[in-house]
Amino acid sequence: MDPLNLLTKQSIFWKLKIHFPFLPIKNETRFLKMKLQLQQTQVRFWILLAILLNFGSVGAISYYDTGEMLTVMAEKGLNLRDKPSAKGKKLIQIPMGGRVKVISKKETKPETIDGIKGFWIEVNYQTWKGYVFDGFLSRLPSPPRNCKSLKDYLTKSYGSSKLETIAMGDYEGRSAYRYNQSILYMTEGGDSFDLYFPEISKEELYLIGKLCNEFGGETFELDGSNAFNVPSKQSQEMMIRIYQDENGVTILRKEL
């Protein structure tokens, strides 16, 4: 297998170690190309890390940029205000599922609303322009009205899935439904399941889970292990846990 191709693998099921064997002189050019690509990969990594440290580490939503369209994930809607503050004058209420365009991300002090940390950002909504709290925004599609479960959300938002058996990693041997964007819904039958959801925050998965009737509550609160725990709304004897694995991927687990 070509070592260069391995660099593009982005999955928890690959714990990659690349070893460079002795190369004959005739392959020296190829070795130099491989070395250059590794250096470029390191540069991209440090640039991404700097971005996350500056913009994505404190707020609830996964990283986004100016010009992006974001979706309101608050069940009762999100207030658009004339100033970047909860004390600003309310201009209009954006309904759940409403889409806003990010105009600017001026630096403001982080605030916490219902346990969710975020910032006030300037956005456009239809013909309106103002400020919203970004802790209740997401790049993901909003759940449909009367969403029944997370499985319901995945099916209606990401389309059909492919049933497969995981071949490597922490979930080796488990059955999983694979959706677009490498989302995995793992279950062995019954009500228990694990949801592996890359590139989103714990808070985003919390908001989606609430909107899809998996659990209730009004406040997002982490325990000593930096995880969110709550009884299942559908099966009171079961618990739901939202956390991030060692690779920074957000997991939701429902079990007894």
UniProtKB/TrEMBL annotation:
<keyword id="KW-0472">Membrane</keyword>
<feature type="transmembrane region" description="Helical">
    <location>
        <begin position="43"/>
        <end position="64"/>
    </location>
</feature>
<dbReference type="InterPro" id="IPR003646">
    <property type="entry name" value="SH3-like_bac-type"/>
</dbReference>
<feature type="domain" description="SH3b">
    <location>
        <begin position="67"/>
        <end position="141"/>
    </location>
</feature>
<protein>
    <submittedName>
        <fullName>SH3 domain-containing protein</fullName>
    </submittedName>
</protein>
<keyword id="KW-0812">Transmembrane</keyword>
<dbReference type="Pfam" id="PF08239">
    <property type="entry name" value="SH3_3"/>
</dbReference>
<keyword id="KW-1133">Transmembrane helix</keyword>
